[in-house]
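This section describes the prediction task in plain terms. A model, or a person checking by hand, is given the sequence of a single protein chain and must write out its three-dimensional structure as a string of tokens. No templates, partner chains or ligands are provided. The sample shown here is typical of the held-out split.
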Amino acid sequence: MPRVNLAAEPYPLTVDLAGAGLVIIDMQRDFLEPGGFGAALGNDVSRLRAAVSRAAMCSTLRAGPG
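The expected answer:
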């Protein structure tokens, strides 16, 4: 199984796909929309919208057949 190099912060990350998993937690509007709970805490939620489509794409991928 290949390895994937990610340009992550605070440092680059190499992931071995044979032992990797994906967990998507709490993609609620209350945390993503202006005026929601996340914004009420003072967080800038404007950049979070892009994460939704990327997470949806990733959730359809799988490591192999079956």
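For orientation: The first strand starts at residue 3 and ends at 6.
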